[in-house]
């Protein structure tokens, strides 16, 4: 058993943890980043790779009420839910639904806008610095409707415009001009022009981790067992040793809540599970950008290994057995849009870590000096990881964060 000393230990090497570790290192702190797997191997690996400048509208927005009847049937590809889980987690469900009230929309959209704008800027800087600039595509993100959804599209565009976010409203012909390789099934499209995407989010996180290591950071691969206060320091217990640190950052994504329980914090973190499967692309009919099929309830993204089809939300326990029903439902729909061949590799499952207000927790733990929380980045954690990390590192260093962190304060849920 070894014991090491450092200024900062970051727990979890997903996009949030790696970003926090790098940003802390940039501020001159000594940093150890710990994960049981290689960096970027879990949720930050399997997502749709979209660096979304326009995802300021949380999933629990006022439109959710209107859509609720179709989701209650539990047959829609966009949202499935486990009734037993819903009963056991009724408190989270009620709070999630309550937060979709119209009065709760603007403050959250404004908070997310600040976080997203700061983060997209950092991604564009870091990806070049990390020598992964070839992985980013500035081709936007196409959100598309099969039905006549002009009114919904215009409403979305108006909201984006209020925040100064550019978009283009497209008809069937304009969509075909943009994506000549797809079947013209979409009547209406909205191109988020300021959105970028990457061809392998896992590799981008690994590149950021290498950048952290090159800057003098230390990466440890080990299972984290517990954290405990130790005088004015923290003791991090690993499967193969211990680390003593002045500051600990919990950036364990969907695994963040349980490590805080022994300290008396009960964080209402739920899991919006999602799946992906990749398919061999047809080089003659390439996909140029991610497409969100809003009626179909899936996203298709061109990735390094093939076309990645990602499914909607499954609300259930994080570790409940996989159900591929949503993926099975959407893959034939996706095949009706883009031409692709056999599956490449196995289906993947991950969990979007989500608090009831769909805002992450970023900031100091209420009752423990030196303990910092950075998790709950829900559907847009790949986008928002860099600024979540930069803000956390700034707060540890006593400097102002790059955006308004007040709406993300941990004490809105724990005391
Ligand atoms: C289907 C799907 C599609 C998505 N698409 C997008 C998208 O297009 N754009 C976007 O911005 N976001 C997207 N997201 C959301 C995004 O992927 C997540 O919000 C983000 O990856 C969360 O990052 P994280 O660093 O918090 O968690 P993770 O990446 O899960 O990192 C947590 C780390 O903690 C480690 N860990 C946990 N417990 C322990 C332990 N006891 N000991 C050691 N290590 C431990 C894990 O190994 C893991 O590496 C999507 C999510 C899903 C599921």
Automatic annotation (TrEMBL):
<dbReference type="GO" id="GO:0008718">
    <property type="term" value="F:D-amino-acid dehydrogenase activity"/>
</dbReference>
<dbReference type="InterPro" id="IPR006076">
    <property type="entry name" value="FAD-dep_OxRdtase"/>
</dbReference>
<feature type="domain" description="FAD dependent oxidoreductase">
    <location>
        <begin position="8"/>
        <end position="395"/>
    </location>
</feature>
<keyword id="KW-0560">Oxidoreductase</keyword>
<dbReference type="InterPro" id="IPR036188">
    <property type="entry name" value="FAD/NAD-bd_sf"/>
</dbReference>
<protein>
    <submittedName>
        <fullName>D-amino-acid dehydrogenase</fullName>
        <ecNumber>1.4.5.1</ecNumber>
    </submittedName>
</protein>
<dbReference type="Pfam" id="PF01266">
    <property type="entry name" value="DAO"/>
</dbReference>
């Amino acid at each position: 058993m070894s014991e090491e000393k450092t200024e900062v230990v970051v727990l979890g090497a997903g996009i949030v943890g790696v970003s926090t570790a790098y940003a802390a290192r940039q501020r001159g702190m000594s940093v150890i980043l710990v994960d049981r797997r290689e960096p970027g191997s879990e949720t930050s690996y399997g997502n749709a790779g979209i660096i979304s400048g326009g995802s300021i509208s949380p999933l629990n927005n006022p439109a959710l009420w209107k859509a609720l009847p179709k989701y209650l049937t539990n047959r829609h590809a966009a949202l499935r839910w486990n009734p037993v889980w819903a009963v056991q987690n009724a408190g989270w469900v009620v709070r999630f639904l309550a937060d979709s009230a119209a009065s709760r929309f603007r403050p959250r959209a404004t908070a997310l806008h600040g976080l997203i704008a700061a983060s997209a800027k950092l991604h564009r800087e870091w990806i070049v610095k990390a020598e992964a600039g070839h992985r980013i595509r500035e081709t936007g993100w196409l959100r598309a409707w099969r039905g006549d959804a002009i009114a919904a599209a215009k409403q979305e565009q108006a909201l984006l415009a209020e925040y100064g976010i550019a978009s283009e409203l497209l008809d069937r012909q304009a969509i075909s001009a943009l994506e000549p390789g797809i079947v013209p099934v979409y009547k209406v499209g909205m191109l988020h022009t300021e959105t970028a995407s990457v061809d392998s989010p896992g590799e981008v996180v690994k590149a950021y981790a290498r950048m952290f290591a090159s800057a003098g950071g230390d990466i440890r691969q080990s299972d984290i067992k517990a954290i405990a206060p130790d005088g004015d320091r923290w003791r991090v217990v690993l499967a193969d040793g211990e680390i003593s640190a002045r500051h600990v950052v919990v950036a364990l994504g969907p695994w963040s809540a349980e490590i805080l329980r022994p300290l008396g914090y009960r964080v209402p973190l739920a899991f919006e599970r999602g799946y992906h499967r990749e398919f061999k692309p047809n080089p003659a009919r390439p996909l140029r950008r991610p497409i969100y099929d809003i009626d179909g309830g899936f996203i298709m993204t061109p990735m390094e290994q093939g076309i990645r089809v990602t499914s909607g939300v499954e609300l259930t326990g994080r570790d409940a057995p996989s159900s591929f029903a949503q993926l099975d439902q959407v893959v034939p729909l996706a095949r009706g849009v883009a031409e692709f061949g056999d599956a490449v590799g196995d289906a993947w499952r991950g969990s979007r870590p989500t608090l009831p207000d769909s805002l992450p927790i970023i900031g100091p733990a209420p009752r423990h000096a030196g303990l910092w929380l950075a998790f709950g980045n829900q559907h847009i954690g790949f986008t928002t990881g860099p600024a979540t990390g930069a803000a956390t590192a700034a707060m540890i260093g006593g400097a102002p964060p790059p955006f308004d962190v007040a709406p993300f304060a941990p004490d809105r849920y724990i005391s």
